[in-house]
Amino acid sequence: MEFVLPALLGIGLAASCGFRVFAPLLVASAAAYGGYLKLTAGFEWIGTVPALAAFAVAAAIETLAYYIPWLDNLLDTIASPLAVIAGMVLFAASVTGLDPFLKWTLAIIAGGGSAAIVQGGAVFARGASTATTGGLANFVVSTFELIASIFFPVVSIVVPLVAVILLAIVVGTMYCAARRLVQKFRGTDDRLS
Questions:
Q1: pTM given for the model
Q2: Which of 83, 87, 133, 167 is 20 to 30 Å from the Cα of 20, by its Cα?
Q3: Domain residue spans in the chain?
Q4: Which of 148, 142, 150 is nearest to 170 (CA)?
Q5: pLDDT of residue 192
């Protein structure tokens, strides 16, 4: 039972990688450097100045790139596997007190899985935005993802249970909103599906 809170922290951090790959790593790095996030053995490098600087540069480049309409969709194809890997790393780095085999098993399933689910929602939302507005509204999706990629890791570190609940609500809402947008664009009705 003592690993429930660290597991929720790991899931919250990992899922945040689905919005952006490097912003959650930057938040985790800053929190670890400041002493607010305890990292497991072997992952202390995340809380170092070189890692903090590298994540800051990568997050800035990633943020700017997502505001270029044609590049954002291309980045989603690259970011999807990277988000899963980053989610697994953040889960493994933040969940303490577990046997290494169990930790990595959960990192792959819960960490990678939660990042993949959130990334899938983000890709679906961006695809719906591109299909219905020709990419003109993608900056709204990009702005939301940026805010979420910073907000959720912070909340995960402070109150992990709240972060996981909010993430589930946000991802569900993203899927529903994107689905309705596509249906509206196609001229179909919810009653037909």
A1: 0.87
A2: 133
A3: 4-192
A4: 148
A5: 46
